[in-house]
Structure formats: structure tokens, C-alpha cells
Amino acid sequence: MSPESVAPGSVRCAAEVNEQIRALWMRAGGSLSAQERAEYELLVVEWAAAIRGRVIKAA
């Protein structure tokens, strides 16, 4: 996944991003390459944004 694959300002739900993170780990067999690590880091940032958005809406 590249940074261009997610449109700026769009936020997917945390569950969707979490599922993509899980799929990445399954494909990688538990050991990430440098490219997979970069993808993972982007996904974690996106997941955190989705969680923050959900918490703010709930408040």
C-alpha cells in the first residue's frame, strides 16, 4: 500500500483498517519486509485516526 492509495482526508472505519493490518501480517507470515513495515506503519496511523474520530464523535 502506498500513501497515494488512501485519498487525503478520507478515513475508513477502524475495523476495516484493522482487518487490513491483520491480512498484512498473515501474508507476511509474521515477519515484515521493509516495504511491508512501511505499509504497516501507514495502516497504524490510519487506524489511530479512525479511533480518534470515533472517540471524538462519542464525546
How would you summarize what this structure contains?
68% of the residues lie in helices and 0% in strands. It has helices at residues 14-28, 34-58.
Strand-helix topology:
Blueprint: H1 14-28, H2 34-58
Task: Write up this protein.
The protein is mostly helical. It has helices at 14-28, 34-58. Helix content is 68%, strand content 0%. α1 (14-28) runs antiparallel to α2 (34-58). The termini are far apart.
Uncertain residue ranges: 1-8
Query: Major sheet, described briefly?
Result: none
H-E order = HH
Terminal CA distance reads 32 Å
Mean pLDDT: 84
Shape: elongated
Using only C-alpha atoms, the radius of gyration works out to 12 Å
The number of helical runs is 2
Structural class: mainly alpha
The proportion of strand residues reads under 5%
Please provide the count of β strands: 0
Fraction of residues in helix? 55-70%
Identify the notable features of this structure and list them briefly.
68% helix; disordered N terminus; single chain; elongated; 59 residues; mainly alpha
